[in-house]
Write a structure and sequence with these properties.
By secondary structure, the chain is α+β, with helices and mostly antiparallel strands. The strands form 2 sheets. A 3-stranded mixed sheet has the order 2-1-6, covered by helices on one side. β1, α2 and β2 form a beta-alpha-beta unit. The longest helix has 19 residues. The protein starts with a helix and ends with a strand.
Length: 113
Amino acid sequence: MHEMSLCEGIVQVLEDQAEAQRYTRVKQVWLEIGTLAGVEIEAMRFSFDVVTRGTLAEHAQLHIIETPGQGWCPPCAKTISISQRHDPCPDCGSYQIQVTGGDEMRIKELEVE
């Protein structure tokens, strides 16, 4: 369950930013997670609740924005939607798809005080 370590990293970022931007409490966090990022959403929610206990983000509301997977198909020379890695191109059936989106995770927005 690597979601726990991902949440520990998020808390570290929140604490670093709290020091730099002088806030003391995080009320809401919006995370953008791609469908190809290999993150289990429910495990992420559970881990966030556990890891934030006793931190400036304790009781913060977590919002997860899932972004779709995208890839580039060289034979078709176009961008396509993919739901998982190693999917074939829905138009030509090629497996030469290069992932171009949906494999990222980032903190999109915070509400702090």
